[in-house]
Amino acid sequence: MKNFPTRTKGAGWARCRLIGRTFGLAGILVLATSLLGAREVSNFNADWRFDRFGPMPDGSERAEPTGLEAPSFDDAGWRKLNLPHDWGIEGPFREDLPNRTGKLPWAGIGWYRKSFELSDEDVGKRIYIDFDGAMSDSTVYLNGEKVGGWPYGYASFRIELTDAVNFGGENVIAVRLDNKPESSRWYPGGGIYRNVRLVKTNPVHVDHWGVYITTPEISAESAEVKIETEVRGSDDGVEVVHEVIETGVKSSGANSTLIIANPKLWDLESPNLYTLKTQVMRKGVVVDTVETTFGIRTIEYKPEGFFLNGEKVFMKGVCQHHDLGPLGAAINTRAIERQIEILKEMGCNAIRTAHNPPAPELLDLCDRMGILVQDEAFDVWGRGKAENDYSRFFPEWHEKDLRAMIKRDRNHPSVVMWSTGNEIKEQNNKAGIAVSQRLTDIVHDEDPTRPVSAGCNNEKSGFNGFQKTQDVFGYNYKAKENARVYKQFIERNPDIPLYGSETASCVSSRGEYFFPVVDEKDQGNGGYFQVSSYDLAAPPWAYKPDVEFEALDRFPQIFGEFVWTGFDYIGEPTPYNKDTTNLLNFTDPVEREKMRKELEKLGGNIPPRSSYFGIVDLCGFPKDRFYLYQARWRPDLPMAHILPHWNWEERIGKVTPVHVYTSGDEAELFLNGESLGRRKMGEFEYRLRWDDVVYEPGVLKVVAYKNGKPWADAVMKTTGEASKLSLSVDRDVINPDGQDLAFVTVQVSDKKGQMVPRSHNSVEYTIDGPGEIIAVGNGDPTNHESFQATKRKVFNGLALVVIRSKAGERGKIRLTAKSQGLKSEKIVVLAK
Ligand code: GAL
Predict the structure, then answer these.
(1) Where does the Glycoside hydrolase family domain lie (predicted)?
(2) Are 204 and 288 within 8 A, CB to CB?
(3) Which is catalytic among the residues 300, 426, 502, 825?
(4) Looking at residue 29, what is its pLDDT?
(5) Which DSSP string do the residues of 230-287 spell out, in sequence order?
(6) Which ranges of the chain have pLDDT less than 70?
(7) What pLDDT is attached to residue 527?
């Protein structure tokens, strides 16, 4: 039995690392220039200059000159911008660029430069720059001197600048990034796409990610909070004190324990958080203060399931790539929060950060919003999947990257497991098993309180010894054949908790339906590059959601599933990938060959540039599948959903199947008032189907029942002609901080305000007031219009406009949407 309550493991706790030198004289300076007990952390995102070289967005090549790091280099001609910045999302989409990475020009060399002053008063301080992520292979220069760098574009890292800074004058920081083509299986983005901070500390200070909090003993009456602190520049006169802000409880010592009485536990409904204030004192004077958020909760993994605070919780999970749709890879907290809100509405309670460490903001949000997280390190180890991927760096960097991820993220109560990799090619051989064990040991060394896992696509890895390197075992896509592989695994590894690390991989385009409806083989309609939304289609290694549901119902000890994917993402437009990505999913040579032929048939340049896997499209609009998962994941919510839409003027008299997703167990369908029959959900059935409905325009109505009693109903009507635009916004008041966003849904409606499902009108947007349009989109995976524009076609009735506030400017932001032949509409968002 694998048990990760929170009991501490002996050896780990003896550690208190006091790093660095003793600062005798400098210590006196500390007192003189003390930062008044605190470090100074400043947002370092504003006012950078940017230019790019190598492969350019228009397909040309631009030579990279030397000397760009020199302080004397004149960067006045470079573009001025604020971070976070993703140069790839600026486009344009290009036919000749690979589909699987989004047909966007993210490859290339980017340079960023920024000048800043440091005053004389900073002499004696330690100066650091913290990058939450820079894509990729960064080299950082200060005043012309190389001060560091980090290859992995998803890693957070700190660089010390102290020895190269010019106190009392100007400093120039320059960052070179190098994105090689063929370095990713999906759209990675390019640039300093996450936040950057400048940190000034006294010489004696808490090290980077230097506070580690665990809660080894928890009862209703009390929680033991263990703290390990790493202090840099420490000497004999240094003392460390801690205080839990919410309760006032204190402790003293770098390694110490304190007790919280009547702890408020962190759980999914009430994600209670505490803040620990850590102060470093030197000779009685506070020289550093840091605050760390933590939660009190127990996690246990047993063969019969996952337990949070002693209660069995099924992980209703989704895999999520890092991009934010039309906003690209550039991190925005509100955009992530909106994604989580939408996922929670569906009933999702867990996210797997496929296949890399996420932005730290995602974990803060999951802490606050009550979401479980599997934090994943890598998509490859030493054997690559794309020519220039991370496998180039793995031998030298894997340990640094893994430790960085765990040290950064191990105080988050939301993080409940670590993953060392996804579909790692080394799953099958002895050497790979040894690598896996080594990675697991590294993780345990940094954090013995959470299990280690990986996403395994190879059936054999559950039996060949690889599974023994895992604390909990994740299979990708193994629910088929009546869950044969799950069954075998459970029989042969009764002590290893099991879950579906990647499931379904159903594909669909929002609002597209093709006929006849063919179960399991419905791969779309070829040339048109959309995939039918009856939620039956999946690539050959995968299956419709219902198949996983059945497997999970057969084996209730499986502790969760992580659906591929929650949101659509840029890149990997399977089944229209036109590259070899898909082949990786087959270990069976016959299947691989079959897929190779399929891809060959597609030939030529094909337009798709983003995925069809999402339950929710690239803009955050739910596809039909959303309601299939909602029906299962929120069984107490009375709901029913009908598909397809009912505007089929060319299908009058033709068979047009109707499917209903409901949290009820039975339903009756009516067409224009006439019953088409009452159907009950059988064992291992998850949708109700009326496969022989003959289309006539009008009203479809479903009445769902649960335990024989009316439970929910829904209607789907044939709409009138498109006549007007309707706008709605997720929040009509936003913060005037230059970061906050309003997401405006643009809908083509008939006279009654009903969405016209097959409309594709072009819409133009104008804005006035203290806001700007930063992105537009519509969820069509084949669309090559720019995301950074003021016009956008709707796709099957809907489009999205993203408005950002302007820093420090308050007032009414007015967005107007116009489209030829339709009545225009305005919406007001208040920045206050
Ligand atoms: C998996 C892989 C994912 C994604 C998915 C598509 O095999 O782990 O990254 O490629 O297939 O179905």
Answers:
(1) 725-827
(2) yes
(3) 502
(4) 35
(5) EEET--TTEEEEEEETTT--EEESSSEEEEEES---B-SSSB--EEEEEEEEETTEEE
(6) 1-36, 520-527, 602-604
(7) 52
Tell me, using a 6 A CB cutoff, whether residue 356 lines ligand 1.
no
Given this model, what pLDDT does residue 233 score? 93
The closest alpha carbon to 374, from 560, 631, 236, belongs to 560
Question: Does one domain contain both 651 and 595?
Answer: no
Q: Please work out whether the CB of residue 186 comes within 6 Å of at least one atom of ligand 1.
A: no
Q: pTM of the prediction?
A: 0.95
| CATH code: domain of residue 762 | 2.60.40.10
Interval between CA 23 and ligand 1 midpoint (Å): 52
Residue 251 lies in a domain: yes
pLDDT tens digits, residue range 9-47? 322 222 223 333 222 233 333 333 446 678 999 999 999
pLDDT, tens digit, 9 for 90 and up, residues 153-175: 999 999 999 999 999 999 999 99
Mutate to test the pocket of ligand 1, among 187, 423, 424 (most ligand atoms within 8 A of CB): 423
Written as one letter, the residue type at 336 is: I
Confidence (pLDDT) at 8? 32
- CATH code assigned at 462: 3.20.20.80
| Residue 148 belongs to domain spanning | 40-194
Q: Is residue 50 part of a domain?
A: yes
Centre of ligand 1 from the C-alpha of residue 504, in Å:
10
Query: Does ligand 1 have an atom closer than 6 angstroms to the CB of 612?
Result: no
Span from the CA of 686 to the centroid of ligand 1 (angstroms): 24
Q: Which residue has the tokens 């240094």?
A: 238
The counts of H helices and E strands in the chain are 9, 46
- 502 classed as catalytic: yes
Residue 594 CA to residue 738 CA, distance in Å, equals 51
CATH of the domain at 86: 2.60.120.260
pLDDT score for 691? 97
**Last-in-domain residue among 602, 619, 649:** 602
Indicate whether residue 457 lines ligand 1 (CB < 6 A): yes
The pLDDT value given to residue 16: 28
pLDDT at 524 (0 to 100): 54
Ligand 1 atom with the smallest distance to the CA of 457 is 7
Considering the domain architecture, whether residues 473 and 586 belong to the same structural domain is answered as yes
630 token code pair: 């909602």
Please measure the distance between the N-terminal and C-terminal CA atoms of the chain and give it in whole angstroms.
Answer: 53
